[in-house]
Amino acid sequence: MTMFHKFKTFCLLIVLATITIFAISTPTTAHAAKWHHITYQGKTYHSKYTIKQMRKKYHLKYQKTYHGHGVMRYSTTYNLFLAIVHNPHTGHWESGHWLSGKTIKGNYAMFVSQPTGDGSIVDYQNMVSLTNGHRYTAHDN
């Protein structure tokens, strides 16, 4: 082989090695899912966020604590995922009717807090829209 052929072969190997390195090391980006699926009571709902993402976005950490002893033992619950609700009402509920708020249309993930622990006196609801991820609140007294 002549010097020219050796140089030509060397340059060809360099070009092939460079192409191979760039082809292998090209970063591929993972695309986030546009819609998630939430299954509740056998029905599947399309949602912008998962329940876990909703909890993280709005700081809805689930917490249950126990108080008292024996017969006087009760629990307080914060941010329990309760249901997927359709066309819920926001505002303040008292004595069998809504005192304020409005009906919001669509499907919502409902997180309920019962800070008193008796299950009936005071409830706070956070409702997160499955369509756009906006949060609404309601209060039962």
What would the keywords be for this entry?
141 residues; alpha+beta; seven-stranded mixed β-sheet; 2 helices; elongated; single chain; two-stranded antiparallel sheet
Alpha-beta content class: alpha+beta
How many angstroms does the end-to-end distance come to?
Answer: 94 Å
Task: Give the low-confidence spans.
Answer: none
Number of strands: 9
Instruction: Please indicate the count of domains.
Output: 1
Rough outline: elongated
Q: Roughly what is the average pLDDT, rounded to an integer?
A: 84
Q: Number of helix segments?
A: 2
| Oligomer designation | single chain
Radius of gyration: 28 Å
Layout of secondary structure:
Blueprint: H1 3-24, E1 36-40, E2 43-47, H2 51-58, E3 63-67, E4 74-86, E5 91-94, E6 97-98, E7 107-114, E8 123-129, E9 135-140
3D structure, described in words:
This protein has 141 residues and is an alpha+beta fold. The chain has one domain. The chain is 21% helix and 39% strand. It is built from two helices and nine strands; from the N terminus they run αββαβββββββ. The strands form two sheets. Strands 3-4-7-8-9-5-6 form a seven-stranded mixed beta sheet, covered by helices on one side. It has a two-stranded antiparallel ribbon with strand order 1-2. A hairpin with an 8-residue loop joins strand 7 and strand 8 (123-129). The termini are far apart. The mean pLDDT is 84. Keywords: Signal. Residues 1-32 form the signal peptide.
In short:
Keywords: Signal. The chain is an alpha+beta fold and 141 residues long.
